[in-house]
Design goal:
Length: 411
């Protein structure tokens, strides 16, 4: 196995302490990120997106109305598709965005994501993760950037290759420009550049740019900041519609990797041609990507569940390093003729049973009519049909060539 940088970042800090003054009465008792958006708080949608890219721990940086955030956490956590931890860090005084991070400094990981709690940028986050994994050691942070045809409402950045060299005032009306998308990946070294009361945008980022310590990745896609009433109004219908995504279910052995039989470790995992490109293509197109895999090797005593989970995590991380993501995965360790007693049973999750697919449909609130399953066995097709999902039998060859027309034909 070759040594490679790890793309996945498991911690995300979220700025939720803003005053929300432009929304008037709406935010008198409710922090902006908790305003309802369809059937859940805006923050619930935001965190769900980060879960798709491997975040398992959220640190909510609170200030104004911290108690309301604390009261909402359990419901938000219960509504998320994965098992995540959500904790709060409350600023002791109005500290600004940089100060909020400063006061949480003892709880930050070596690398962490940071985002605004009142805006959503539907861009492929794996592009940011992949770029950051290859950053030189002296880089402190990387920002997900947006290119606008008219950037006159915002300050803009100067980008040289992928280095952010300066922040500038708003350009004149009609001038195109590159702006901060409000999503960051930082190294813990950021803390050395913070003070108890400071603004990330006005103080810290410009200083980092002057010191050549800041880089950017250009993203694209839907962006909405719910800070003003008209935009919040639009977000309430746009976001639930947008984030009920189409879904690509992938079998593992024989689709993502050459089926060498009971592959239980990365050193025996050989990618199918075009597999990483196929994952990236689906991610870029705004689809969920899931793995559903029978792993009777566990029931046969060839490897254990930790090995299966470890290999799935490695697959997801390798996908992110290649600019795509695996949103989630299900595996079935059972087999009716297994040699390990605990796993010797028929199980509804074992394909051709549809159990794994149905569980993902439930967890991610999917519409089966907007999902497809790619497998290399008839049992995959049976599982798909019984879950109400269109099945496509992969005959081998290049996976991107096979998947691209399927993904692209869905409007
Ligand atoms: Mg297979």
């Amino acid at each position: 196995m070759t040594c490679q940088p790890t793309a996945t970042v498991s911690q995300c800090a979220v700025l939720v302490g803003g005053l929300g003054t432009r929304l008037g009465a709406l935010t008198a008792a409710t922090p902006k990120p908790l305003l309802p958006c369809g059937d859940r708080p805006f923050l619930g949608w935001l965190l769900r997106e980060f879960v798709r890219y491997g975040v398992t721990e959220f640190l909510l940086l609170t200030g104004h109305l911290s108690g309301a955030v604390e009261n909402a956490v359990a419901a938000i956590q219960a509504g998320l598709p994965g098992d995540v931890r959500i904790t709060l860090s409350q600023e002791p005084v109005r500290a600004g965005t940089g100060g909020a991070v400063f006061h949480a400094r003892h709880r930050l990981h070596d690398r962490f994501l940071l985002c605004n709690g009142d805006s959503l940028f539907d861009s492929n986050l794996a592009a940011l993760l992949a770029d950051a994994a290859r950053d030189p050691a002296d880089t402190v942070g990387r920002i997900l950037l947006r290119r606008l045809d008219d950037a006159s409402r915002y300050g803009v950045v100067t980008l040289e290759q992928d280095r952010i060299s300066a922040f500038q005032e708003r350009p004149p009306a009609g001038t195109p420009g590159i702006i901060n998308g409000g999503v960051y990946l930082f190294r813990r070294a950021l803390v050395d550049h913070l003070s108890p009361q400071c603004s990330l945008e006005a103080d810290v980022l410009p200083a980092l740019a002057r010191g050549n310590r800041l880089r950017g990745t250009l993203g694209s896609g839907y962006f909405r900041d719910i800070g003003i009433p008209e935009d919040y109004q639009r977000a309430q219908t746009e976001i639930p519609t947008l984030l009920h995504r189409r879904a690509l279910f992938l079998d593992r052995d024989g689709v993502l990797n050459i089926d060498h039989g009971y592959v239980g470790s990365a050193d025996r995992f050989e990618w199918v041609d075009g597999a990483l490109d196929a994952i990236r293509h689906a991610t870029e197109a705004g689809w969920h990507v899931f793995i559903v895999t029978n792993q009777s090797g566990v029931a046969r005593g060839l490897y254990d569940e930790d090995a299966v989970r470890g290999l799935l995590a490695w697959i997801a991380d390798t996908a992110r390093l290649a600019g795509g993501t695996i949103d989630d995965a299900r595996y079935c360790p059972f087999h009716p003729e297994g040699s390990v007693t605990a796993y010797r049973q028929a199980h509804p999750w074992r394909k051709p049973g549809p159990g794994m697919l149905l569980d993902l449909i439930r967890a991610w609130e999917l519409n089966p009519a907007r999902a497809v399953m790619i497998g290399d066995q008839e049992s995959d097709m049976r599982a798909a049909a019984d879950a109400g999902i269109a099945g496509y039998l992969f005959p081998g060859g290049n996976l991107l060539s096979f998947i691209q027309p399927i993904v692209d034909k869905y409007p």
